[in-house]
């Protein structure tokens, strides 16, 4: 296409998931021109159904909270953990950071479509079923190659690109920015069931994380929805799957059958949906930004699903990037490293410390410790609610040291 005819847009966002929809809406609210290229048609399935309170702060900032609250999603007020007869619950209404007391458990197909529709309502343009295939950074502004559903291509020149392509990791792949994750290869197998849960004490307003009775690194999620259905999944390192059936439904059942407390919860479930799997999802990058682009959400780094932090990190990165980019477009000199990457990574590193502690066992000891003080419970609840950037919280300011100290106390008092 001759350069004179080429479409020029101020901001192009790759992907209309939570990171893309929130970033696009925030920039549009500042008056900028935003185009989202999304390769799928929404609604589309996505995993990541248990939200943290902190992500609603960004939904609110983007002017979408009313729509999310009106959508009838399952209210969520905390997180519960079970291991054998041990049970421990954390309440998002009683946290150190005093954030939002409740959030939601959502079918992501509906939730992501709602956010994307809200972004469109605010003036963002989304082109569905179009795929970003290449980017040329040789000129003053990047030029994107977009493939339409019929196989034809066109190019768009962008003032700035926000890559919110999730597991697509478009710019990390194209620009050789991928870096190995610190976490071993793990795999999840999951499905949705008609749950019929009537177990005494089961709390539909919390995600239930159940630890396998003998393998502490194997855990399950149960995330009830508001329509009587529940998302159920198992996470384990790949070697734990070796003695399990190759058939995904049989594999999930085999893990659950080894875990009596969860089998009891799900005893009346109707297994009407074929299980799916996703593996090797933890990922990292060499940099979060470069000339003319920044990486958001999973396109940058994904840690681990255990504390349901993915959507919150995605939205936080969207909000921070939108703010820096807005100032840049206003003509300010901005420093993406100190104003975006470094502060974003601080909270991600907090989550990382607790994820490491979970798999190594020390954070599980803390979670199931029966003598937990109210103050410590509030500080941990804060992190579980997503407030991992609140450095007034000692468990955020010094996560590793605090966790080590607490684990030693739990061990020495013989929990
Ligand atoms: C097993 C598991 C369980 C999880 N559970 C939770 C949970 O309970 N809570 C939670 O918060 N998080 C959870 N997560 C993490 C969560 O799935 C992600 O962190 C979250 O979806 C990231 O949002 P995003 O906007 O960055 O990317 P996505 O939601 O993946 O959106 C990216 C979009 O980009 C589009 N795209 C990709 N490539 C291209 C391209 N080339 N051109 C155009 N468009 C493109 C895709 O179609 C997609 O719609 C879990 C993850 C796993 C693996």
Describe what you observe in this structure.
This protein is of the alpha/beta class. It folds into three domains: 184 residues, 3-Layer(bba) Sandwich (FAD/NAD(P)-binding domain), CATH 3.50.50.60; 94 residues, 2-Layer Sandwich (D-Amino Acid Oxidase, Chain A, domain 2), CATH 3.30.9.100; 59 residues, no CATH class. Helices cover 35% and strands 24% of the residues. The protein has 14 helices and 19 strands. Strands 1, 2, 7, 8, 9, 10, 18 and 19 form an eight-stranded mixed sheet that branches. A seven-stranded mixed sheet has the order 5-4-13-14-15-12-16, sandwiched between helices. Strands 3-6 form a two-stranded antiparallel sheet. A hairpin with a 7-residue loop joins strand 13 and strand 14. Helix 2 packs parallel to helix 9, helix 9 packs antiparallel against helix 10 and helix 11 packs across helix 14. The radius of gyration is 22 Å and the shape is globular. The model has no long low-confidence stretch (mean pLDDT 96). The structure holds flavin-adenine dinucleotide. The site of flavin-adenine dinucleotide (FAD) has 38 residues, from helix 1, strand 2, strand 8, helix 8 and helix 9.
């Amino acid at each position: 296409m001759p350069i004179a005819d080429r479409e020029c847009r101020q901001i192009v966002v790759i992907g209309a998931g939570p990171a893309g929809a929130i970033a696009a809406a925030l920039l549009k609210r500042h008056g900028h021109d935003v185009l989202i290229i999304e390769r799928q048609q929404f609604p589309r399935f996505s995993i990541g159904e248990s939200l943290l309170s902190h992500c609603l702060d960004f939904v609110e900032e983007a002017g979408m909270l009313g729509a999310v609250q009106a959508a009838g999603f399952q209210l969520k007020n905390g997180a519960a953990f079970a291991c054998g007869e041990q049970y421990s619950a954390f309440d998002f209404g009683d946290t150190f950071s005093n954030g939002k007391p409740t959030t939601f458990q959502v079918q992501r197909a509906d939730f992501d479509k709602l956010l994307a529709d809200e972004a469109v309502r605010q003036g963002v343009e989304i082109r569905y079923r179009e795929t970003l295939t290449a980017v040329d950074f040789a000129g003053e502004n990047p030029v994107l190659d977009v493939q339409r559903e019929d196989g034809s291509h066109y190019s768009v020149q962008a003032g700035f690109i926000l890559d919110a392509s999730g597991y697509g990791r478009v710019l990390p792949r194209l620009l050789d920015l991928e870096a190995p994750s610190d976490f071993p290869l793990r795999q999840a197998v999951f499905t949705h069931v008609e749950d019929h849960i009537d177990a005494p004490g089961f709390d539909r307003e919390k995600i239930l994380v159940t630890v396998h009775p003998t393998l502490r690194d194997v855990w399950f999620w149960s995330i009830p929805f508001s329509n009587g259905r529940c998302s159920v999944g198992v996470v384990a390192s790949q070697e734990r799957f070796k003695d399990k059936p190759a058939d995904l439904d049989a594999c999930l059942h085999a893990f659950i059958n080894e875990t009596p407390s969860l089998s009891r919860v799900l005893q009346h479930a109707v297994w009407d949906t074929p299980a799916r799997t996703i593996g090797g999802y933890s990922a990292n990058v060499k940099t979060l930004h470069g000339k003319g682009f920044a990486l958001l959400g999973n396109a940058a780094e994904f840690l681990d699903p255990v504390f349901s932090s993915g959507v919150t990190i995605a939205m936080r990165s969207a909000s921070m990037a939108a703010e820096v980019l807005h100032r840049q477009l206003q003509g300010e000199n901005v420093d993406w490293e100190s104003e975006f990457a470094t502060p974003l990574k601080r909270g991600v590193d907090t989550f990382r410390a607790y994820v490491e502690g979970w798999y190594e066992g020390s954070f599980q000891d803390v979670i199931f410790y029966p003598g937990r003080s109210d103050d410590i419970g509030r500080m941990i609840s804060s992190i579980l609610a997503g407030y991992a950037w609140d450095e007034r919280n000692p468990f955020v300011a010094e996560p590793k040291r605090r966790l080590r100290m607490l684990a030693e106390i739990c061990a020495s008092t013989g929990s």
